[in-house]
Amino acid sequence: MQTPLFTGTHRIHLQEVGSTNTYLKELIASKDLSEGSAITASHQSEGRGQLGAEWNAEPDSNITTSILYHPKFLLAEEQFLLSRAVALGVREFIQKLLPDELVQIKWPNDIRVLGKKISGILIENSLAGNFLSTSVIGIGININEAMRLETAISLHDITGRYYNLEELYPVLFSCLEAQYLQLKSNKKEAVKKDYLKHFYGLHQEVNFTDTLTQESFIALIAGVTEEGKLILQYPEGVVRFIDLKEVRFV
User: Nearest 5°: CA angle at 90, between 133 and 33?
Assistant: First the structure.
């Protein structure tokens, strides 16, 4: 079993909590916590995804955690680098458990297997001047739950196995820590390159829906900007830089 250096070495496990991210942020406000401190929960009743989307899961079935990092080495405009690194860490963790499957990152940081979502990530940053100060990294991974949504999938759905969550947490924490330390050692270009290497739909034409007009369209995914905007190239040659929730993958 992998042993992380500091991620998850101080860990608080809760039977039930509204949101692990909210709990960790409230804890940070009341006491000093060491970097890598983690909250895990058997059940999260008010789980949140990007832009307030709900994330609900069966009790004791999935990985639900929030981790504290202090990426003070990153400028505010570089915060999407942290999102890339975390997505890479979660992707690597899932790839270890599914060595024969294609595990990809779907913009901005969902993890996708067999065309379905297996993990979601929500990162909430605070700033000190021009630099990041604290980052609360919320991660949900579908492990043992039989998923009811056609767009979602779990490890159990794929392998038929049931997993011991307590054995999986240290592996996840080690994968995350390795990516975080790579970023901290200023290997930013390696993180960017690896992120694009595993990026779903890169240089391919993909079907989208405009969330404002509900119109469907096809565009080529040309990449991602430094700030994390999706770069889409339309058949007529027009290029757009897309913010989160402006489009939906079909």
Answer: 35
Strands 116-128 and 131-141, bridge-based pairing = antiparallel
Q: How sure is the predictor about 52, in pLDDT bands with cuts at 50, 70 and 90?
A: very low
- H helical segments located in 5-45: 20-30
DSSP 118: E
Give the total residue count for the chain. 250
Per-residue pLDDT tens digits for 177-219: 999 999 999 999 999 999 999 999 999 999 999 999 999 999 9
Helix (H, G, I), strand (E, B) or coil at 9: coil
Answer whether 99's CB lies under 8 Å from 91's CB: no
Q: What's the confidence (pLDDT) of residue 113?
A: 98
Instruction: State pTM to two decimals.
Output: 0.94
* Cβ pair 203, 93 in contact under 8 A: no
Q: Give me the chain's average pLDDT, please.
A: 94
Same domain for 142 and 230, yes or no, is no
CATH number of domain containing 157: 3.30.930.10
**Residue 245, domain CATH:** 2.30.30
Pairing of strands 11-17, 38-44: parallel
pLDDT at 1: 61
Please say whether the beta carbons of 191 and 185 come within 8 A. Answer: no
Which residues on adjacent β-strands are paired with residue 207?
Answer: 218
Q: Is 77 a member of any domain? A: yes
User: How far is residue 243 from each of residues 58, 229, 232, 240, 248, measured CA to CA in Å?
Assistant: 31, 5, 11, 10, 11
